[in-house]
Specification:
This protein is α/β, with parallel strands linked by helices. The chain contains 5 helices and 11 strands, in the order βββαββββαβαβαββα. The chain has 2 domains: about 70 residues, Hypothetical PUA domain-like, domain 1 (Ribosomal Protein L25, Chain P, Beta Barrel); about 140 residues, SPOUT methyltransferase, trefoil knot domain (Alpha/beta knot). The strands form 2 sheets. Strands 1-4-5-6-3-2 form a 6-stranded mixed β-sheet. It has a 5-stranded parallel β-sheet with strand order 9-8-7-11-10, with helices on one face.
């Protein structure tokens, strides 16, 4: 954990927080911090800064915090991902968040097992937990937007263009295609959208539909 994410409910007064969960344990047992020392903190979806430890016991941690540093710039990338198996899905969420990706669209595909859509890992609280873990590693505070799209064709026909915003789009698929360009493809205010298929890749119909 490289940043302690703070929630509005952590504040017990202006500029003062109290923690008594895994974050408290991390500061005490992993960082081995002491009263008077500072740790990196950040308000969820807000600014980052430093927390000065005021109280540190076996049960609680209290800090005075000043968050006045803007979070890092996001990656100029939208990720469209065929829903992977649950264990892999959790790791991908953490990794994508750590890389600064702020929009993740989970889509269906012919080779996506239908049971994946009923996995508890898709519950909002479970998704949020993985995203926060990624933010803690990346020293970032802005949660990515994760959306679920269980129907492939309506997503591609009705939503993908709005998501891409007119920026370059790529399908990461192992077939006879042009190599990925190695030069800048868009201006600084444009997003690149990359679609990644399931295990075994997209079927031919899906690749053709994405290319359209």
């Amino acid at each position: 954990m490289n940043l302690i994410i703070l929630y509005p409910t952590d504040y017990i007064a202006d500029g003062r927080v109290q923690l008594n969960d895994y974050r408290h344990k991390h500061v005490a047992a992993v960082l081995k911090a002491k009263v008077g020392e500072q740790v990196r903190v950040g308000d969820l979806n807000g600014c980052m800064g430093l927390g000065s430890i005021l109280v540190l016991t076996d049960d609680t941690l209290e800090m005075s915090v000043v968050c006045d540093v803007e979070p890092p710039q996001p990656a100029a990338l939208n990720l469209v991902l065929a829903l992977p198996r649950p264990k892999v899905f959790k790791r991908i969420l953490i990794t994508a968040t750590t890389l600064g990706i702020k929009r993740i669209c989970l889509i269906n595909s012919w080779r996506v097992d239908k049971s994946y859509w009923g996995s508890p890992s898709l519950a909002p609280d479970e998704i949020n937990s993985q995203l926060v873990t990624g933010l803690e590693q990346a020293r970032d505070t802005v949660l990515p937007v994760v959306t679920l799209h269980s129907r492939f064709k309506p997503f591609v026909e009705d939503e993908l263009q709005n998501i891409s915003g007119g920026g370059p789009c790529f399908v990461a698929h192992p077939h006879n295609a042009k190599p990925c360009p190695q030069f800048p493809l868009c201006s600084a205010d444009q997003m690149v959208t990359v679609a990644v298929g399931p295990e075994g890749g997209f079927i031919e119909y899906e690749v053709d539909k994405l290319i359209e």
